[in-house]
Specification:
The protein is mainly β. The protein is built from no helices and 19 strands. It has strands spanning about 15-20, 25, 30-35, 40-45, 50, 55, 60-70, 70-75, 80-85, 95-105, 110-115, 120-125, 130-135, 145-150, 155-160, 165-170, 175-180, 190-195, 200-205. Strands 5, 6, 7, 8 and 9 form a five-stranded antiparallel sheet that branches. It starts with 13 loop residues before the first strand and ends with a strand.
Length: about 210
Amino acid sequence: EYFAADYGREAWPSPLGADSSGYWWGGGARKIYRFDGDHLKEYDSPLDSGLGIGAIDRRDRIWKPGLVADQCTVARFDGASWELWGSEDGVPADQNWRWLTVAFDEQCRPYVLAFHMEYRDSGILHFDGIRWQEMPPPAFAGFELCDIASDERGRLFAFGSLDGASAVFRLDDDAWEGPITITGPVTSSSVSEIGIDHEDGVWFACNDS
């Protein structure tokens, strides 16, 4: 059994994840869809095109990056209406940034790991409830960031690699702790995703190569 949706010109619709009711969400820049197990419900999006992945927070709100009238924009959908932020709200105006992964703190404020397509560099973007701001922690200097994740309390973890050494950082009370060096065959090139368990253990999903 399968279910299909017409995404129009959007060739790469992406999954967004499940909300607290177990409904699955997915879609592209112009439209998103909710699947309740039997039907797909369609919602229009204000974005003209996408700039990376989206995510669902613990309040079932959907966050997506993209372009509106050729301007970099972050859009949030609460199930009924969209709220938009642009460069005047601190969203980087450079269209070369792509969202790679999103994690949320205890207040459901997003941290975004983004990658710059031209400079081949990674950075973290954070929304404090009012404005977006870039976060270049000193401890990240030289590290190639791979993924970020948050634990059940909303504390942020980041994984990176430098000169063959892998490390984990933790954001606690707005200050970064680390790097905590990891031994073993774990590098940023082999790790596809990290996850945090209820005891703050960090788990790595690695490629086989």
